[in-house]
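Anyone up for a design puzzle?
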């Protein structure tokens, strides 16, 4: 059974003539990490809102860990799904970081000792322990984003949806985020990353779902999707810097015996081979 199942999903916002989603199909299994990419208005966030139950299918079906989202209440889905908004300020409200992170497990009825354990673990994982007594809204943008993520992880969701999680994060913080995502998936969770950061996708994500105008136009391994110029152009996306760099070096004759492989891993190998020659 798929952890996430989307079949022929259609949705049109009230007052709009054009559907935001047009027959979307998606299956994600436990332990998978998937990047959902596409231009603004492609339908990425609309799809995510169906996964957390904020929107209900007008046609088609959405299931999350066996729950039909058209019938399940948002609070039922909240036990399984954690959603980090693009702007962390939309979900931060508590007086301190610690109270922010303990809010969800408390309200889900965990005993005090378990709440304390979960909060301590979430703060440690996101490097927030030293900030636990600070007001969240007084922190930097990157720190607020980590607080929002910690407040989600503390209640132990099985599906983690991250909307533009790399905004405000430097290279080291992006690597830490990627490591956290990988561990979450290795423990049997599912992660969906909505992002415009194709360099982050190229380096850390194994699977990419490309959306354009409410349609899934591609779904496959990142090292195949991100080197397909025609596909990316159709979705109004530019290739990540790693792909553009190798193409530019090849075009200017600065690399020898390097072909444009249809794999980012092979592109990297070819680049290193060319630099050594």
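Challenge accepted. My sequence:
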């Amino acid at each position: 059974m798929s952890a996430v199942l989307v079949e022929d999903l259609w949705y049109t916002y009230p007052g709009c003539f054009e559907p935001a989603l047009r027959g979307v199909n998606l299956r994600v299994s436990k332990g998978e990490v998937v990047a959902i990419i596409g231009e603004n208005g492609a339908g990425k966030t609309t799809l995510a809102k169906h996964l957390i139950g904020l929107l209900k299918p007008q046609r088609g079906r959405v299931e999350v860990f066996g729950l039909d989202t058209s019938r399940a209440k948002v609070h039922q889905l909240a036990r399984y799904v954690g959603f980090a908004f693009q702007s962390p300020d939309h979900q931060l409200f508590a007086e301190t970081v610690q109270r922010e992170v303990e809010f969800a497990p408390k309200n889900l009825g965990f005993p005090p000792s378990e709440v304390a354990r979960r909060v301590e673990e979430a703060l440690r994982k996101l490097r927030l322990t030293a900030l636990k007594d600070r007001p969240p809204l007084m922190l930097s943008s990157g720190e607020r984003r980590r607080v929002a993520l910690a407040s989600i992880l503390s209640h132990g969701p099985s599906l983690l949806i991250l909307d533009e999680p790399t905004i405000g994060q430097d290279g080291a913080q992006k690597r830490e985020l990627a490591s956290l995502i990988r561990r979450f998936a290795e423990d049997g969770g599912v992660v969906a990353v909505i992002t415009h950061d194709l360099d982050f996708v190229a380096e850390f994500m194994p699977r990419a779902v490309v959306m354009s105008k409410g349609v899934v136009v591609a779904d496959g391994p990142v090292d195949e999707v991100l080197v397909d110029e025609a596909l990316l152009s159709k979705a109004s996306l530019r290739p990540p810097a790693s792909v553009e760099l190798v193409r530019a070096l090849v075009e200017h004759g600065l690399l020898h015996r390097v072909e444009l492989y249809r794999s980012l891993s092979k592109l990297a190998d070819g680049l290193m081979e060319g630099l050594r020659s």
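A detail worth pointing out: The chain has one domain: 4-222.
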